[in-house]
Structures are given as structure tokens and as C-alpha cells.
Request: fold
Amino acid sequence: MFGAFLGANAVGDEEDFALRGLMRWGLIFSLFLMLSQSAVAQAQVISLRGETVATEEPLPTSLLVTTPRLTVRAAPSGKSKRHGTVVGESRLPVLAREVGPGCSDNYWYRIGDNSWVCGRFVQPDDTAPEAEAQPPMRDEELMPWPYAFVHENAIEYERFAGGYREVREVMPGYGFAIERSVYIDGDSYYRTVEGRYVPQRAARVTRRISTFSGVAIRDEVTWPVGWVNRENAWSFSEPSLRQAVRVERLARYTQFSVQERRTVGKHVFYRIDETHWVHARDVQVATTAPLPDSVASDERWIDVDLANQIVTAYEGERPVWATLTSTGRGGASRTPKGSFRVWAKVAAIPMDNTDDEPVDETLGEVESTDQNKHYYSLHDVPWTLFFHQGYAIHGVYWHNRFGNRRSSGCVNLAPKDARWLFDWSLPVLPDGWWAIHPVAGEPSTLVRVR
Reply:
């Protein structure tokens, strides 16, 4: 083709040689452009065989989550381990982008270490990343939301097809968090954090959330620490129960540092300052726990002391924080002993025993009756650390009996303590995340129950 073209123009040998060289280089350059364009196009095609291909397109500044809950995967694949959940409207950072199976017609975006989200549920944006810590807290509030308990049978509703439909019947003892109050067809309802509706006439907001909190172990706090855990407890001027040496009544939850322990006959007393003593039957005292074999010398870990109903946070052999707890009552409701690793952290989660054997329980401001004492259904339980199967350390909004066995097996903490331990323990829950499940190689706090 090229020879015929050149011959028709009757050029000389030298010119013919020069033109042939130019045409040859032009052909090579054209082929280079074609291959380059093909490579760029290929980089933007999602592999149907599950291969991951890098892209040359600029990364967005952030990703706006457009679904109420977005699953985070440990790798760019729909079959990879679930690493956590992100709440809607969060703006996530973007570190990389790939294509992979399980996210058809879109990219997987890396938002952190071992953290990928499917592009079908996010909107690329030029706004800086921004997300709120979960559960959301207002200044000086004990809990993320106000809570209420149902005190009479009622129907719970949800939005459906532009109207409302019945979800289920809720009974006395059902606890939930309130997002806001609304009016529907002239009646007042609580909209729950889960997006459902409970008639206000059937529920009461609880005012009995505990204000108790443990103590950080600092230079000014002498270890071991303890708490008064009995109504009408007395302090004494000497280690004796004689009425003549009584000094003053001590309020329940009074915290102290042990200065001295003394046994007098069959009685044990603790000196709590220069001149005052308390009897062991009226208090609970933290004891130093041995370092578990699998814990490093500076590693964070949690000790759950069932006998004394005390939870202590350690860094290596050093206690850094301690508080009273309520663990399982025993029997089928016992808290399992052993050493475990936190396998999930969840901002808030529903808990119930409706699939288990019934138990005797009084919740919130609901009186125990034959109708409500057997089962419980508690939603939006905050600051939950799962350490073994369904057993967890978590905050409670339904009792104030810390220092006493009370739960169905979990480790109950007052709200301030649950929040502190949740934030301190590993893995860290990133802002905007509702839950995180540590994957292989990620740190996870050890919980030792003894």
C-alpha cells in the first residue's frame, strides 16, 4: 500500500527512503497511542473474573455515605470478612480505589487499613472528610439518647408505602431509645432510634439512669480502691463494731482508698483515712490481678473479678481504672470464666432473652408482675464490647445495682464507666463507624473473667 502510494508520486530513491522512514515512525506512534488508550480504558473496566485493576482517575476528597448502614469489608471483595459498619451521612476519607467482585459496575474504595466500601452506596465528593463519633453524645449528657420503657401492651409501627404498618406487639419491660416525639393522625408517638413508632401513652421516659462512676488510678489515688455498697453503712473510729465507736453513716457508692487492712477476731476492717474504719461486709475492694500470660508488659487488658463484682482496666501490671459491675446471677445466667479477646465493638445494639428460658427481672420503672417478669427486650444498649460469643461488657439504663450480681450473663456497667472503657479499649471505633470487628493482625483487648 505504501509502495504504491510512493511510486505514484514518482519520488527519488533518497526521498523515497526518507518518506518510508517517516511513515514507519508514524505507524509506530499511532500504534503506541492506540495501545495507551486501550490500557487506560482497560484500567476503568471492572473485571468479571474477580480481578482487581488499578485506576488512573483522580481520587475524590471524600465519600458521602448514602445508605443508613454501610458494610465495611476487609478487602475489595463482597466475600471478604466484614470489618464493620458505617452510619449514613458520614463523609469518609479515600485512600485508594480498585475494582473487584461483589460491587458490580462500581469501584471498591479503601477508607482505612483493611477497610473497603462499595461505591454503589457512597457518593464521591470534594468536601473534606467528616464524621461523628458513635454513639452520638451531647455535652454533659449521661447517655446518647433519652430512654423509655413500655408499661402496657401496645403496637409498634414503622413507615411503609407512604403510610404506617404494624410491626409487632410490645409488652411491659420493652426498653428503647427515643429519637424524637411526633404526631400521627392526632396521636403522640415516640420515634425510636431504630426508626419505629411507639404510642406515648404506653411508655414512660426513665429517670433512673445511674450517675455512678468508677475511679481513674492516678498518683493521688492510692491502690487498692473500694466502694461502700450497702445502705446505712457506718464508719468507726477504731476497727470495732461497737456502737460507741460509730462515727458517721456512709452513702452507698462512697469511694475510698485502702490505707490498712486488719482482722479482728472473725471480722475484717479497712482503714479508709487517718482515723476512720469500715467493715468488710459493707464494702467491696479491688484486688490486684496477675498479668495474663498472653499479655505484653505494656498491653491494655480488662480484669473482671466475679467475687468482688469489680472491673479493672490495666496497662501491663499497672491498674489505671476500676469500677463496680453487675455480672451474671449464676446458673444459666452465669458469666463465663476465662481469657477472651474483644471480637466486636458496637455503638448500641438490641438485647433480649425472648429465645431463652424466662428469668425474674424488674426493668426501669416497670413493676415486676407475672406478665413482665419473665422476658426482657432492651434495645439500643450502648457501648457494647463483645468478648465471648454473645457475652459483652456494656452500659445499662435499666438498673442502679452495681456491685451486685444481676445480669443474664453480660458484664453491666454504669453509663460513664461503659463509655470510658469503650473508648479506651481496642480496637478503636473510628468516627462515623457504628461497629467494628477486628481482623487478623489488628490489636484487640484481652478480657479475663475470674
Observations:
- The chain has three helices and 34 strands.
